[in-house]
Amino acid sequence: MPDLHLFHSPGTCGRVTLVALEMIGAPYQVTIVRHYGDGPGDPNFGFGDGSYRALNPTGVLPTLLIDGKPLTENIALLFTLARLFPAADLLPIRDPISEGEALSRLSFCVSHLHPILTRINRPQFFCDASQEGALISVSDPPRGSAAAASRRPS
Ligand SMILES: N[C@@H](CCC(=O)N[C@@H](CS)C(=O)NCC(=O)O)C(=O)O
User: Fold this and answer.
1) Which of 1, 35, 141, 153 sits in a 20 to 30 Å window from 68, CA-based?
2) Domain count, the chain
3) CA distance 112 to 89
């Protein structure tokens, strides 16, 4: 059984891999990483001394050490865990068409949904709210991929 060690912060998308680990039921270790610091580019993000970037040079969460080797990006983590623990039936890895469908939906979450949520939850990363006039004009109803992201899956 591989040694699993998740670097995570509550309230972040690291919960995706955390849920997968819980579904698998295998033992794993968690290290809580300081979330965001002073925002993207903060050299102290992570462990407060910048050392988190030794694990993940992009600086974002989560990172999963598998037998000591760091792996990043939730989609990669989910597919790797699904193959390491096939009995957990995390993803339809035995059927290429169903696997493609799962990859398509996960890719949509990562490339469209998550960046939109980041801008909603952390506007300070994208504008200087202290400056007069730094108001964000929000389109209602949402358009483009934001509209697709706001629809409930059928
Ligand atoms: N595509 C990445 C997204 C990772 C990501 O953006 N994580 C956020 C937390 S939800 C983060 O660590 N942000 C810190 C930063 O942007 O500096 C994945 O799915 O793993």
Assistant:
1) 35
2) 2
3) 26
Give the distance, in angstroms, between the CA of residue 135 and the centroid of all CA atoms in the same chain. Answer: 27
Any atom of ligand 1 within 6 Å of the Cβ of 74: yes
- Specify the residue with its C-alpha closest to ligand 1, atom 18: 73
Ligand 1 geometric centre to CA of 60 (Å): 4
Q: Which domain holds residue 131?
A: 96-150
Residues 84 and 102 occupy one common structural domain? no
* 49 and 107 assigned to the same domain: no
Closest residue by CA, ligand 1 atom 20 = 73
Claim to verify: residue 65 and residue 23 sit in the same structural domain: yes
Q: For ligand 1, is residue 12 a contact (CB within 6 Å)?
A: yes
Which tens digits make up the pLDDT trace of 105-135?
Answer: 999 999 999 998 888 777 767 766 666 555 5
Q: How confident is the model at residue 45 (pLDDT cuts 50, 70, 90)?
A: low
How much distance in Å is there from the Cα of 153 to the middle of ligand 1? 23
